[in-house]
Fold:
Amino acid sequence: MKRHTLATLAAVATALSLGACSSAVKLDDPAPVDDRNAAAGAAGAGGANGSARPVPGSDRPVAQVDLQPSKDPLNDPASPLAKRSVYFDFDSFSIRDDFRPVVDAHARYLVGNKTRRVVVQGNTDERGSREYNLALGQKRSEAVRRALTSLGVADTQIEAVSLGEEKPRATGTDEASFAENRRADIVYQ
Amino acid sequence: MRRLHRLVPLFLGLVAATASAQMRIDVSGVGATQLPIAIAGFEGRAPQDVAAVVRSDLARSGAFRVIDTQQTVSDTAPVDFASLRSRGAETFVAGSVARLADGRYDVRYRLHDAVKQQPISGESLVAPEADLRLAGHRIADAIIEKLTGEKGIFSTRIAFVSKQGNRYRLNVADWDGENVQSPLVSPEPIISPSWSPDGGRLAYVSFEQKKPVVYVHTLATGQRTAVANFRGSNSAPAWSPDGRTLAVALTLNGLSQIYLINAADGANARRLTTSNAIDTEPVFAPDGKTLYFTSDRGGSPQIYRIPVSGGDATRVTFGSSYNVSPRVSPDGQRLAFLTRRDGRFLVGLKDLAGGNESVLTDGGAEESPSFAPNGRWIMYATQSGGRDTLMAISVDGRVRQRLTSTLGDIREPAWGPFSN
Structure:
């Protein structure tokens, strides 16, 4: 249930981000600057006398340097890499089929970007022993680490750690909150 | 535990309740036998009512019915035994507090047998003003030991963690929750405090580096050493009885496994358990030769034991599909642990020789049991009114003390050793 809500939110967030991207493209378009210069020239030519001369000091060209936004897909909200959380079923430590694409996307990225490092943080719900939960969280982060390694990511690029029940994303005591906290997060360093 | 059924009618209300700036203790239940003891006010002026500390300690123990004589009697004054006997007192304490030339205080008491009408014992303690409460705790320790043979825990300290908003504190307090001090304050979680056998250091797990790392912290100086900061997670520190070795859970080969490291500097890490499962929560038996730990190698989390020198692990608990957090009693005879029964988390107790497993508590959200150094009490974390609180229960299940705090949620109790 909770996951559906999250998925919907993610979709909304993606849509919003895409909207932001299209306006960003307009800002990068050099055309309006050229138009303004042309309009200034036309106004001079249409003046009262025909002996137009260049306005003193008008020859002041400005060259534009366009710093493109990073092409790193890690920063692209539309990329599957934008998903950084892998959820687990109750009492389970295997990666569900619906989160395979997330793990695959990060594996491809890390294989292609050998200098990038991630910490995989395992989490659990709050029930029971804190130390045993810490070990269970490690079991989740370790499952993600092994999946990434099996897809070719170098061991040195990944550290699997556990936060146990200590850093809950959801603080309720209902099943939806517990499910939200049965999670491993891929955190880029 | 059979006595548990008789616990409810024994909730006679508050035997003693005190409030301090930061902590509050409510006591319910009474011991199997209660010695009637009269305690007079101590003669002399002092910034701390020492007799009140003695009364409070003995009342909270559940082993005494404390009679306040409502009068001040010096340790050297003649005793009106007839009056004490008429009020049901079998023993009587009188005392005095006198300020010395150097600013310290001389605290004296005398314990009398009111039936035989003769003195039993007495002592003179010299304490600076800041330690007048401690002097009271020491007197209560001496009295309970003299009268019951049981070593008192009134001068011991506890460690616990509090969380208020996003602020975590590692705290040290007197056993009664007074005199709270915070050796560590952090924006990140702190768990699993563990006292060194000499009471001078605490090992714990801090998440200040965005992952669990084990530190050893010297209380007197504040000096901290990250003794286990390996790749992966580092947790569950437990001291060997000689204070030289720490058992910790490390994840160097994937899942948590138990390693031994030097307590001083974390050097010389050697792996003790080898399983394809989770091994964590190590704790040394008092003889230093056996280690108890939690493992799910059999499919469900259970408590196992293994020789510290290495070898095969033997399963210890059976009565539930979730038995974790082992703690061995100071005499090595019993095991306290966390057990899940019908979805509720409770403190279990097991007789290591006889094999019986019983359930000691009935809260349902219990965690982190910790034995008092005399083995007569177990402190644990639980919840009350939506907040984390601490409880202490006598191992016979008869007396309970609830500690609540203005420090917010309080959890992860660790009862410190006897101090000299």
